[in-house]
Amino acid sequence: MRDALKKVIFRILGKDPEAIIVSFATGDPLLADRMFAEIQALEPRRRHLLVRPEEAGSYRSARRLLRGYRIGLAPVLFDGDVRYRNLRRIAFLLAPTKILAYNQRLERHHLSLRSAIASLLFLKGVPLDRIFLRPAWLVPWNKDRSSYPSEVNEIDGRPMSPRRRRIAILTPYFPYPLSHGGAVRIFNLLREMAGEFNIFLFAFHDQETEDDIARVLEHCARIVLVGKSRYREPRWSSLLPPEVREFRSAAMHAALARIRREYKIEAMQVEYTMLAPYAGDILVEHDITFDLYRQVRDRLPTRAAQLSRQWDYWRWRRFETRWVKRYQQVVVMSERDLATLNRPNVTVIPNGVDLTRFTPEIERPGARLLFVGSFRHFPNMVAFRFFMEQVWPILRAQSSDVNVTVVSGQDPLIYWRQYTGLDSLPTDDRVHLLEFVSDVRPLYVEANLVLVPTLVSAGTNLKVLEAMAMDRAVVSTYSGCAGLGLEHCVNVWIADKPEDFANAIRTLLQNHSLRGQIAAAGRAHVEVNFGWQEIGSRQRSLVRKLLPPRIQLRRAGPGDLGEISLIQASASEASQWQAQDYLAFDCRVAILDGRIAGFVVSRRVADQEREILNVAVHPDFRRLGIASELLQTEIKSHAGVHFLEVRESNTAARQLYVRLGFQVIGARPQYYENPNETGIVMRIFS
Description:
single chain, Rossmann fold, 4 domains, 26 strands, 21% strand
């Protein structure tokens, strides 16, 4: 009876009694077709119509098109394309309470006044997964809460040596494979520090393989891995930056405390600002994060967008400046970052490049461009959008033979959607998008020009150094190569505007000679300034400076003569005296781990003039800085000039004395016996 009455009423109104589903193609045609196919699959028993812009240019024409139909549901695509704004308005007028909104990710949400806030957020492009998140302080009973894994995986690496001091390094991700700049830096400095320190590496699980772990274990005494969190709080809802809260882990705190206590770790280095609350001794600022958000804020076109980024900027500035003050030492990548923080505990240890791995190869003919930048780091996506939307159209219109290879890192679409709100990446038949690439060197070999169109940046870009090390010319924005000491048209071409960037690419592709000159100058620049060996030496020196004193010095006594005799006998290159005679002079011994590790003997020969008679270190304690400590203490204790003699063949000792400031002033033939050898006379003023 009810169905019969319904049919009569709708016939009187001139409508079909069965409601149909009318989909509106109000966006990218491919996305609209996918939306239509999905709703057909979801409602197979219903009749479906797809309305395109050319079929309904006005409200009146749309009503004519749908005359006789009753709309039961109206799927509408909201992908931000303003060209379809009119058709969306028509859909609202025709079926204001029936709108099923689709976004660029083809997520769907029923628009309703009862869920007005959620509907508004959805239309603004917020992912559906995050729209209904509520902060724990507001809705504590919500079951969709963040989870923090408690599992800790400990892996033993190379055997620990008592000769090496013990330090810990904490990083938000495993530093292998070398898929992005942070991993490259951490891995290379691990390798450089491994010769002097027993390293305990703490990291959050990423997607590392057994082979990746094996590569890092070569340089570590132990690796400790903790699972990453599933963070389920709205980004806006906390005073702390969300990245900081995401990496809060009770399991990591407990593992750090236990292992630092058990193995007597003497210092800890923390990589990246978001891990600062783990409270180490050295904080490595791979970039000044609040400065990044300031740049992003300043580039946004609308006031509403700027307010959102202002909140990010304010939180990061508050957090970062507070923690920078609490660390003994803070490491930044460039002089620009040093000036930004402007604090006495900040030092520059720049990024580097492996000059033995990235070696020049002859450039092949062609017009191949290369962009390297993991989308995991959002400035790389800003750079990619700038190139694809503003530079590439100019370049493509002017040249038919230019091709671009883009290395976007692991899971680029996930990060692209998260940061841009767009469902898909830009496509072009001459732009080849690669994801994770384990070895980028062959791509540099194939490239004729490397692009760094970075608009927002802090720190320094490793990809610039890699390209120059491979003898490839680089076109970069000022931001992309800042902090590296480069000069426009000398060792890099700098262009900030889209037209200038496109013109730079075209000019260098056409001018092989100029391109070669810039590439060669770039290689020379990195050879002088950015080899990992020199940078590693600076890193080791910084760590060493913060370690508590390990060597105790005191005057020698009669009870030390036996040990002094054994040390002297083990050092055949040193002078061989009767040990008891040393007590008549100034004799100091170095104590390490409860043992006499070395000694130095000197005497006064005139006013403010002394002679160092002998210095020797036990073989078990060499290359630990003991001889340096003994000699520096001797020199500081007595003002004036110090002399010493050293065997001509004792190259290691002579190099040590030169590093300490001694100068060669003469030679004494046949000065030494067993065997007979010339003595080199050296002098230092204190």
